[in-house]
């Protein structure tokens, strides 16, 4: 426990990430108000995935972690995607 690396990030970098997330939230709300059909849901999901990656990378410090932990996080998202795909396939075949 004494050899733990300490990852210190500045308030400036947190502020930049916060502003970026607020801009993405504004874009999400704007796209939702455009009523462009199925594209609004797709755009919202794309923007949400960018926000998730930003939060995981900066606030959860994944960019400074080992490759093994990064692979585990990627594996969780792949598993989640497979569950969603299987659910939609089940829904379509009813």
Can you characterise this structure?
Helices cover 77% and strands 0% of the residues. By secondary structure, the chain is mainly alpha-helical. Helix 1 runs antiparallel to helix 2. The longest helix has 26 residues. It is flat and about 50 Å long. The model has no long low-confidence stretch (mean pLDDT 88).
Secondary-structure topology with pairs:
Elements: H1 11-34, H2 38-59, H3 67-92
Helix pairs in contact: 1-2
Binned strand content: under 5%
Secondary structure class reads: mainly alpha
Give the N-terminus to C-terminus distance in angstroms: 53 Å
Count of separate DSSP helical elements:
3
Enumerate the spans where pLDDT stays under 50 for 5 or more consecutive residues: none
Number of domains: 2
Instruction: Please report the total strand number as a whole number.
Output: 0
pLDDT averaged over residues: 88
Q: What's the main sheet like?
A: none
Radius of gyration equals 18 Å
H/E topology pattern: HHH
Helix content: over 70%
Q: How would the global form be characterised?
A: flat
């Amino acid at each position: 426990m004494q050899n733990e690396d300490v990852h210190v990030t500045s308030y400036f970098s947190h502020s930049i990430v916060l502003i970026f997330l607020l801009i993405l939230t504004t874009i999400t709300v704007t796209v939702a108000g455009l009523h462009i059909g199925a594209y609004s849901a797709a755009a919202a999901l794309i923007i949400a995935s960018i926000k998730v990656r930003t939060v995981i990378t900066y606030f959860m410090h994944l960019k400074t972690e080992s490759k093994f932990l990064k692979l585990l996080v990627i594996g969780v998202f792949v598993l989640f995607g497979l569950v969603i795909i299987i659910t939609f396939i089940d829904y379509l075949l009813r």
